Amino acid sequence: MNEFHSETEQLDFLKKYGLISPTKTSLPPFQYYAPDSAIPVPCEITGYDQAFETWAILVINAAGTMIKIHSGYLLEMKTRGTSRQKGNRTVRKKDTMPSSYVVLDIETTGLSYTADKIIEIAAIKHSGGQTSEFQEYVYIADPVPAKITSLTGITNETLQDASPIDVVLPKFLSFIANHTLVGHNIKSFDLPFISRACSSLGLPPVKNKVIDTLPLARKKLPNLSNHKQTTLCSYFGIDTSHAHRALSDCHMCDQVYRSLTDDV
Questions:
Q1: Nearest Cα to 205, choosing from 184, 167, 176?
Q2: pLDDT digits (tens, 9 = 90+) for 153-189
């Protein structure tokens, strides 16, 4: 663990990751919600395990228990407490496209997140009026199944010079930060793979807000024969010539999402 050597160093660190206001001159109280608990306990940020450009793995002392936690999750817990203090009245708002979001897609060696492996991760980020992309192959020692190569064109030679998942995943998490995540069947496929990889590397699971275009399409277009991404692309006139490659699928999903929300 990397410890803070002064309160000034700690304040500067927390300001960098948006955990406190830039004008703060003293440490505010923080709180931690244990899994499945609605009751917070006070916590103290004692240091950090890893630090990246837009997020960090913090080390906190919550009621005597040392816990590693993503900076974004601690910020969400702080916000959650503020919301509770303002009362329990909830106002439902009409769904709108978020001002910033990340479309993501992965390619894997199979359909089982417990038995198969990620071999490519890609994402498109829309934030602050700018668009940026992330795409990396992931090295694996196991043979890429022939059916996966046939579907995606990815071979072991493709992955030969790629970085392993313990290098690629932290970079990907830094890229998505706390943005809303958009993907097709993302809740049942992509995120379980990513969460399992996070768990195996000692990283917390992704807790970002998620918009899954599969249930959204079923709701908006109930009369389609099916709601596969390629079917939705055909319906909206979106090019599918490069389907089943992660970054191309991100572009397709992005256009599908925008088309589905045009009249929301």
A1: 176
A2: 999 999 999 999 999 999 999 999 999 999 999 999 9
